[in-house]
Write a structure and sequence with these properties.
This protein is an alpha/beta fold. The protein has one domain (about 1-180). About 40% of the residues lie in helices and about 10% in strands. The longest helix is centred in the last third of the chain and has 22 residues, at about 140-160. The protein is globular, with a radius of gyration of 18 Å. The relative contact order is 0.12.
Length: about 180
Protein backbone atom coordinates (compact mmCIF):
# COMPACT_ATOMS: atom_id res chain seq x y z
CA UNK A 1 0.00 0.00 0.00
CA UNK A 2 2.76 2.53 0.75
CA UNK A 3 4.28 1.81 -2.66
CA UNK A 4 0.94 2.38 -4.35
CA UNK A 5 0.78 5.65 -2.46
CA UNK A 6 4.27 6.60 -3.75
CA UNK A 7 7.11 4.33 -4.83
CA UNK A 8 9.74 6.67 -3.42
CA UNK A 9 8.61 5.63 0.09
CA UNK A 10 10.69 2.49 -0.44
CA UNK A 11 13.81 4.60 0.11
CA UNK A 12 12.69 5.27 3.69
CA UNK A 13 12.93 1.59 4.61
CA UNK A 14 15.79 0.78 2.26
CA UNK A 15 17.94 3.80 1.31
CA UNK A 16 19.98 1.60 -1.05
CA UNK A 17 16.91 0.47 -3.00
CA UNK A 18 16.98 0.89 -6.75
CA UNK A 19 13.73 2.69 -7.38
CA UNK A 20 11.69 2.74 -10.57
CA UNK A 21 10.44 5.95 -12.10
CA UNK A 22 8.23 7.55 -9.46
CA UNK A 23 4.76 6.06 -9.36
CA UNK A 24 2.17 7.67 -7.10
CA UNK A 25 -1.54 6.89 -6.98
CA UNK A 26 -2.68 7.71 -3.44
CA UNK A 27 -6.35 7.61 -4.44
CA UNK A 28 -5.90 3.99 -5.52
CA UNK A 29 -4.46 3.15 -2.10
CA UNK A 30 -7.37 4.91 -0.41
CA UNK A 31 -9.85 3.05 -2.60
CA UNK A 32 -8.13 -0.25 -1.78
CA UNK A 33 -8.65 0.35 1.94
CA UNK A 34 -12.27 1.45 1.43
CA UNK A 35 -12.99 -1.66 -0.68
CA UNK A 36 -11.45 -3.85 2.03
CA UNK A 37 -13.87 -2.36 4.55
CA UNK A 38 -16.82 -2.99 2.22
CA UNK A 39 -15.85 -6.61 1.59
CA UNK A 40 -15.38 -7.22 5.31
CA UNK A 41 -18.76 -5.66 6.10
CA UNK A 42 -20.46 -7.76 3.39
CA UNK A 43 -18.94 -10.98 4.76
CA UNK A 44 -19.16 -10.38 8.51
CA UNK A 45 -21.94 -7.83 8.94
CA UNK A 46 -19.85 -5.43 10.98
CA UNK A 47 -16.98 -2.99 10.64
CA UNK A 48 -13.41 -4.29 10.75
CA UNK A 49 -11.24 -3.10 13.61
CA UNK A 50 -7.77 -3.88 12.34
CA UNK A 51 -5.73 -4.78 9.31
CA UNK A 52 -2.57 -6.54 8.22
CA UNK A 53 -1.58 -4.52 5.14
CA UNK A 54 -0.14 -6.61 2.32
CA UNK A 55 3.27 -7.92 3.42
CA UNK A 56 2.94 -5.79 6.57
CA UNK A 57 3.93 -2.69 4.62
CA UNK A 58 3.23 0.50 6.57
CA UNK A 59 4.23 4.15 6.32
CA UNK A 60 3.27 7.37 8.04
CA UNK A 61 1.66 8.50 4.79
CA UNK A 62 -1.05 5.81 4.97
CA UNK A 63 -2.09 6.49 8.57
CA UNK A 64 -4.70 9.11 7.68
CA UNK A 65 -6.71 6.98 5.30
CA UNK A 66 -6.37 3.87 7.48
CA UNK A 67 -7.80 5.88 10.41
CA UNK A 68 -10.42 7.55 8.18
CA UNK A 69 -11.62 4.08 7.13
CA UNK A 70 -12.29 3.30 10.81
CA UNK A 71 -9.39 0.98 11.55
CA UNK A 72 -8.21 1.08 15.16
CA UNK A 73 -5.04 -0.93 14.56
CA UNK A 74 -2.75 -2.23 11.86
CA UNK A 75 0.05 -4.72 12.02
CA UNK A 76 3.51 -4.99 10.57
CA UNK A 77 6.63 -7.08 11.02
CA UNK A 78 9.31 -6.93 13.66
CA UNK A 79 11.89 -5.92 11.05
CA UNK A 80 9.99 -2.70 10.37
CA UNK A 81 9.93 -1.89 14.08
CA UNK A 82 13.59 -2.75 14.53
CA UNK A 83 14.59 -0.33 11.75
CA UNK A 84 12.27 2.32 13.21
CA UNK A 85 14.04 1.95 16.56
CA UNK A 86 17.47 2.20 14.93
CA UNK A 87 18.28 -1.51 15.28
CA UNK A 88 19.47 -3.85 12.56
CA UNK A 89 17.21 -6.51 14.09
CA UNK A 90 15.94 -7.69 17.43
CA UNK A 91 18.42 -9.93 19.19
CA UNK A 92 17.36 -13.37 20.36
CA UNK A 93 18.82 -15.72 22.94
CA UNK A 94 19.78 -19.34 22.27
CA UNK A 95 16.09 -20.30 22.57
CA UNK A 96 15.07 -17.73 19.91
CA UNK A 97 13.40 -15.48 22.50
CA UNK A 98 13.59 -11.74 21.79
CA UNK A 99 15.95 -9.92 24.15
CA UNK A 100 14.00 -6.63 23.93
CA UNK A 101 10.47 -7.90 24.65
CA UNK A 102 9.03 -4.60 25.88
CA UNK A 103 9.95 -2.99 22.57
CA UNK A 104 8.45 -5.72 20.37
CA UNK A 105 5.36 -6.80 22.29
CA UNK A 106 3.65 -3.50 22.98
CA UNK A 107 1.47 -1.33 20.77
CA UNK A 108 2.71 1.92 19.29
CA UNK A 109 0.30 4.73 18.48
CA UNK A 110 0.49 6.87 15.37
CA UNK A 111 -1.69 9.58 13.94
CA UNK A 112 -1.78 12.00 11.10
CA UNK A 113 -1.79 15.49 12.56
CA UNK A 114 -4.74 15.83 14.92
CA UNK A 115 -6.61 12.88 13.39
CA UNK A 116 -7.56 9.71 15.23
CA UNK A 117 -4.76 7.50 16.45
CA UNK A 118 -4.10 4.03 15.10
CA UNK A 119 -2.32 1.40 17.16
CA UNK A 120 0.46 -0.43 15.35
CA UNK A 121 1.42 -3.87 16.54
CA UNK A 122 4.37 -5.90 15.32
CA UNK A 123 4.41 -9.64 14.84
CA UNK A 124 6.99 -11.97 16.26
CA UNK A 125 8.52 -13.21 13.02
CA UNK A 126 10.05 -16.39 14.47
CA UNK A 127 6.85 -17.61 16.10
CA UNK A 128 4.78 -16.67 13.04
CA UNK A 129 7.19 -18.53 10.77
CA UNK A 130 7.16 -21.58 13.03
CA UNK A 131 3.38 -21.79 12.64
CA UNK A 132 3.40 -20.90 8.95
CA UNK A 133 6.23 -23.15 7.83
CA UNK A 134 7.68 -25.50 10.45
CA UNK A 135 5.13 -26.80 12.93
CA UNK A 136 3.31 -28.68 10.16
CA UNK A 137 6.21 -31.16 10.14
CA UNK A 138 6.26 -31.49 13.92
CA UNK A 139 4.06 -33.79 16.05
CA UNK A 140 1.08 -31.75 17.27
CA UNK A 141 1.79 -31.99 21.01
CA UNK A 142 5.45 -31.09 20.50
CA UNK A 143 4.52 -28.06 18.37
CA UNK A 144 1.91 -26.91 20.89
CA UNK A 145 4.33 -27.34 23.79
CA UNK A 146 7.00 -25.37 21.92
CA UNK A 147 4.59 -22.52 21.15
CA UNK A 148 3.32 -22.29 24.72
CA UNK A 149 6.87 -22.52 26.07
CA UNK A 150 7.97 -19.61 23.89
CA UNK A 151 5.08 -17.44 25.04
CA UNK A 152 5.72 -18.33 28.68
CA UNK A 153 9.41 -17.45 28.24
CA UNK A 154 8.40 -14.06 26.82
CA UNK A 155 6.07 -13.46 29.77
CA UNK A 156 8.83 -14.40 32.21
CA UNK A 157 11.29 -12.03 30.56
CA UNK A 158 8.76 -9.17 30.66
CA UNK A 159 8.06 -9.85 34.35
CA UNK A 160 11.80 -9.92 35.14
CA UNK A 161 12.20 -6.54 33.43
CA UNK A 162 9.22 -5.13 35.31
CA UNK A 163 7.70 -3.91 32.07
CA UNK A 164 4.18 -2.66 32.90
CA UNK A 165 2.62 -3.27 29.48
CA UNK A 166 0.19 -3.65 27.92
CA UNK A 167 1.89 -6.42 25.97
CA UNK A 168 0.71 -8.59 23.12
CA UNK A 169 2.63 -11.39 21.41
CA UNK A 170 1.36 -11.01 17.87
CA UNK A 171 1.33 -14.13 15.74
CA UNK A 172 0.38 -13.05 12.24
CA UNK A 173 0.56 -15.30 9.21
CA UNK A 174 0.63 -14.50 5.54
CA UNK A 175 -2.65 -15.94 4.33
CA UNK A 176 -1.30 -18.58 2.01
CA UNK A 177 1.56 -20.05 4.03
CA UNK A 178 -0.28 -21.90 6.79
CA UNK A 179 -2.36 -23.89 4.30
CA UNK A 180 0.38 -25.16 2.01
CA UNK A 181 0.99 -28.32 4.08
CA UNK A 182 -2.63 -29.44 4.54
Amino acid sequence: MPLLYATDLDAVGDPAAVLPQRFSYPNDAITQVQKAVEVYQDHYGRDPRGMWPAEGAVAQEIVKFVADAGFKWMASGEGVLAKSLGLDAFTRDSSDIVQQPDDLYRPYYVRDGSGPQVAVIFRDLRISDLIGFEYSGTPAQQAADDLVGRIEAIRTRLQEEGSPGPHLVSIILDGENAWEKL
